[in-house]
Amino acid sequence: MDAHTESSEPVPETAAATSAAAAASVLDDDDLLREILLRLDLPIALVPAAAVSRRWLRCASGPAFLRRFRARNPPRLLGVYVNTGEAQRLRFVPLARGPELAAVVRRGSFDLGEEAGSVWDCRNGRLLVFVDGKYVVRSPLHPERGTDNLPEPPVPAEAYTILLYFSDFLFHESSDDSVSCTSVTVMCTARQAWVHLSDLQAGVWGEGRYSGMIDIPVPGSLRGCEHHALLANGKLYMMCLPHHIIGFDLHSTSSFCIELPDGVQYEYLESIGLSCAKGSGFFLIHLKGFQISVWLHRMDHSSIGSWKLIDTIFLPQAFGHLAELTWSSLPDVVRVAAVGDNADFVLLRIQHKLFYMHISSRTVEEVYEANPAHGFLYGVYPFMMPWPPTFPVLNGGNDHDQ
After folding, report:
1. Are 294 and 343 in contact (CB under 8 A)?
2. Among 145, 195, 252, 331, which one has the highest count of C-beta atoms within 10 angstroms of its own C-beta?
3. Ranges for the F-box protein AT5G49610-like beta-propeller domain (predicted)?
4. Is residue 87 in a domain?
């Protein structure tokens, strides 16, 4: 008699079921999911990922995760606005690399019109522009938001009675969708300087506040610094002295003076650039001849802090075949046009040409050449991808969490 033995082996699962179970074991683990999302190359890739479910949205938009993502994938440069003096019109030069970023730029509306002459600030996808005698806010990546006309920033009455004053106009550091700015008026005598600040909230300028007085180390040496101020981590830094940076704490309204590192001097407007640093402090890019020095300044409790030399770059070596023999015969031919956050990149103006240099990799490329008949590049303003991304609001139909 034949013996019949039933197999003790389980019925094999289908390949699809096995794959689904393996995927679920990974994607149902929040820590593993965050590690996967962290390896997406671009911030815009987080948006469709966050639309999968409320749990994916929670993982992709959490503050701790976003800090890690930004450290690994900093916001990208989408392009620059340039002013060549041709009818004082701003032109946008797209610099997005890769099809995803190029698609972002194509969907935007970057033409600011015939009367746009200068960019006062750019932060999180917004431009603060001076157009036909008025200050306006534009959002090129979201043209449906239209244009916000801002009231004239206040200038204190005493500014007209002193030796010198100059103004700047800066976006707040917040990343929300509100249009909020700070008007900065620096006032000075031959020996002292102070600042008047006023905040714009909901279309109305608030009551002004004054900083403390600060003594000018070398009397009478203060220089104008419009468009040469940095607002970073609650502090305002202004490059307006040959050997010092004047600083103001926006919360306490206290003032301080930072001496420049040995060998660094503010000789002319485009010899120095300032850049915000993660956490606290700021970077300083110093150009002398054909050499760039990158310095990091960290603040301490006394608001004095210390300098650290991060990098030194010899430009003819970095430029390689892009360098021209005639440059060596021209004094101060290289100019710092703009600096990226965390000293990630620097835009250099050399006569009618604009060059982009990624600082850590030493990658250099020519990105724009102006028509010599229209003058030099009078202004260069980087336009970065906004951070953080604008995440979707999910309804119940998109919620796959159990």
Report:
1. yes
2. 195
3. 118-391
4. yes
- Residue 396 forms part of a structural domain: no
- Mark whether 285 and 378 lie in a shared domain: yes
Query: How many domains would you assign to the chain?
Result: 2
Residues 276 and 197 in one domain: yes
- Cα separation of 35 and 48, whole Å? 16
> Which residues are within 8 A (CB) of 245 and not within 5 positions of it... i.e. 6 or more apart?
237, 238, 239, 257, 258, 260, 274
Residue 224 structure tokens: 């104008």
Fill in the DSSP letter of residue 86: S
Determine the residue type at 78: L
Closest to 188 in 3D by CA, of 229, 150, 159: 159
Same domain, 66 and 124: no
Query: Whole-angstrom Cα distance, residue 114 to residue 112?
Result: 7
Q: Which residues contact 351 (CB under 8 A, 6 or more apart)?
A: 330, 333, 376
Structure tokens at 31: 């820590």
**Cβ-based neighbours of 7, under 8 Å, separated by 6 or more:** none
Q: Which residues, listed in sequence order, are joined to residue 362 by a DSSP beta bridge?
A: none
Q: Is residue 42 domain-shared with residue 184, that is, in the same domain?
A: no
Q: Which domain holds residue 52?
A: 19-71
- Of residues 43, 99, 104, the one with CA closest to residue 78: 104
Are 64 and 181 in a shared domain?
no
From residue 338, give the alpha-carbon distance in Å to each of 39, 43, 294, 356. Answer: 29, 23, 14, 10
Quick check: is 402 in a domain?
no
Q: Mind listing the pLDDT tens digit for each residue in 16-69? A: 666 666 666 666 789 999 999 999 988 888 999 999 999 999 999 999 999 999
The length of the chain is: 402
Residues 354 and 332 in one domain: yes
CB 64, CB 388: distance < 8 Å? no
Do residues 352 and 377 make contact, with C-beta atoms less than 8 angstroms apart?
Answer: yes
Would you say 387 and 87 are in contact if contact means Cβ atoms under 8 Å apart? no
Say which residues have a Cβ less than 8 Å from residue 383's Cβ, sequence separation at least 6: 77, 78, 79, 80, 81, 92, 110, 122, 127, 140
> pLDDT tens-digit profile of 231-268?
888 888 988 888 889 888 888 888 888 999 999 988 87
Domain membership of residue 10 (yes or no) is no
